[in-house]
Amino acid sequence: MFPDPSAGGAAYLECTRCGARHPAEARLRLSPCCDKPLYARYDLDSIRERFQPSALVGREPTLWRYAEVLPVRDARFRLTLGEGFTPLLDAPRLAAALGLERVWVKDEGQNPTGSFKARGLALAIARAWELGIGVVAIPTAGNAGSATAAYAAAAGLEAHVVAPQDTPRVIVEEIRALGADLELVPGLITDAARRVAEGAASHGWFDLSTLKEPYRVEGKKTMGYELFEQLGGRLPDVIVYPTGGGTGLVGMWKAFEEMQSLGWIGPERPRMVSVQADGCAPIVRAWEAGVEDAGVWENAHTYAAGLRVPRAVGDFLILRAVRASHGAAVAVSDEAMADAVRLIGRTTGIFAAPEGGATAAALPVLMQRKLLRPEEEVVLFNTGSGLKYVTP
């Protein structure tokens, strides 16, 4: 059973730069005050007593089990294709191959449309639907387009997807089969974003770009709640996360803050490790330089489409989480990613996406730099299925 329909809904939206509050029911994207990402904030004091881990027993195994801390108010709009509560798999043979004692793999490839993008787009489109928005649009490197098409179709909304011309063919066919209007453009996701911005200005499309609306991060944060549940009421020592736009990493960091306010955890946090491709590593460059503005990465290139993001609008949020957790940011080569995909496959039975391979490829780098100890418990995020990258 779902929780009481009145349980969900944000109290207000908060600017992540200056902290200004904005109405939760407004159709906002970036903050009107600073033009920065907005976070949905909840009246956690009012739900603390009734929203404890014990309350989750018997709830449906989707991300909506956390409805009290999700932004959709009316249960009729809790759009679902079965996303969330993906397996957290113990990987002892992978751990042994990498010289570590305990490694887990959170397999997001088992989400609808084969990637973690299902989480964010389920929430963004459900909330858009609840707010009466009828037409949505998204620039994508691939998997976000698939998820947008799927959830828009489920909600009966019109969807426009703009993607680079070299988007994997299987993803292109998936988007078309799910009924979205698809446009392929030369260049990168940043070029697709410009086209979506034009459509938003000319035709009134509601732009769902990463961290440019408040609700995709709400879907991604459920990964943090799930880790706590699946590890029996605790968090790991280290989370290793492939980072393009970074919504998943900052979403989990937001979840840990909420969980502490709810009394589920104390001030302890996992160390957050951001992994990028060495052909597109703006977050790594900014972390090494000690700055918050990652800037634009020129001539971005990597076969991991989800990591080919030259500029992250939430760069300062990613870097704050990494630094506050005493984590790190590292880059790995495409060759190392491909080798790690095969290593994950033969030691776990998971066919990981290149982005998932990047997390395993990062572990030897972290060990060599003494940023990770062999006895620490590590969770790797495989953000998608390797099947999405197979070319016919």
End-to-end Cα distance: 42 Å
- The total beta strand count reads 13
The CATH architecture of the largest domain comes to 3-Layer(aba) Sandwich
- The side-by-side strand order for the widest beta sheet comes to 4-5-13-10-11-12
CATH class of the largest domain: Alpha Beta
The run of helices and strands is EEEHEHEHEHEHEHEHEHEHHEHHE
Number of domains: 2
Arithmetic mean of pLDDT: 96
Low-confidence residue ranges: 1-6
Helicity range = 25-40%
**Main sheet properties:** 6 strands, mixed
What does this structure look like?
The strands form three sheets. Strands 4-5-13-10-11-12 form a six-stranded mixed sheet, sandwiched between helices. The protein has a four-stranded parallel sheet with strand order 8-7-6-9, with helices on both faces. It has a three-stranded antiparallel sheet with strand order 2-1-3, with no helix packed on it. The chain starts with 11 loop residues before the first strand and ends in a 10-residue tail after the last strand. It has two domains: 1-115 and 214-392, 3-Layer(aba) Sandwich (Rossmann fold), CATH 3.40.50; 117-207, Rossmann fold, CATH 3.40.50. Helix 4 (143-155) links the parallel strand 6 and strand 7. It is an alpha/beta fold and 392 residues long. The chain has helices spanning 44-47, 92-98, 117-130, 143-155, 169-177, 189-203, 216-230, 247-261, 282-289, 315-324, 334-348, 354-368; strands at residues 12-15, 21-22, 38-41, 88-90, 102-107, 135-139, 158-164, 181-185, 206-207, 238-242, 271-277, 328-332, 377-382. The radius of gyration is 19 Å and the shape is globular.
